[in-house]
Amino acid sequence: MCDRGWVRDFRGQWEPPLFWIIFLLGAVGNLLVVWIYTTVRHRLKTMTDVYLLNLAVADLLFLCMLPFLAVDSIKGWNFGISLCKIVSAVYKINFFSGMLLLTCISVDRYIAIVQVTKAQNLKKKRLFYSKLACLGVWTFSALLALPEFIFAQVTDRNGQVLCTLVYWNNAFNRTKILVLSLQICVGFFLPLLVMLFCYSVIIRTLLQAKSFEKHKALRVVFVVVFVFVLSQL
Known about the structure:
It is found in: Membrane. The chain is mostly helical and about 230 residues long. The chain has one domain (about 5-230): Rhodopsin 7-helix transmembrane proteins (Rhopdopsin 7-helix transmembrane proteins), CATH 1.20.1070.10. The protein contains 8 helices and 2 strands, in the order ααααααββαα. It has helices at about 5-40, 45-75, 80-115, 115-120, 125-145, 145-150, 175-210, 210-230; strands at about 150-155, 160-165. A two-stranded antiparallel ribbon has the order 1-2. Helix 2 (about 45-75) runs parallel beside helix 5 and helix 3 runs antiparallel to helix 8 (about 210-230). The protein is globular and about 65 Å long.
């Protein structure tokens, strides 16, 4: 049987420095992205620019929660129930918004590369549509993270204060199963299926092309896929 005391000691020893490294590197990288898009380039030129800026903002929100998680891994949760709910919800908002924004990027690349005629017709309105899509992403992500805000509680387990989800007591844990199933299906698997479809068609289209620009676009696709895989680790 796993010794929970050993697990707590391990977390307290290794998680805080890891969290601080992620915090520092992530803050520098994402603030640089925000600075480039808001100061150097002065304006957002493409739909992908809008999505990447929103991805950076989502990551910065998550990074603001890491100091709380670092302290929690050492001393337990000492920040009260309000911050427990906020940190839990922001963590999920970051995850879902990241998934959905990467999905938006895949759809944008699909339209630009595969549906070229449609892309030309929508050229003047693409920035407007991208901002509208981002508004929808943030709203939908907040709704998917609402259970964290509702069920996150501060509990005492064997003398350790934890910030954890406490679902309503009902037969067969129906509330927990329903919430997790909805979040996983709508917030992960559905965006994943959309991305798989878009990128499979994009890669097939680019492999059939011989122009330099097409192959350059293929490299961009692989970078986006790599970022997606890295974000799920």
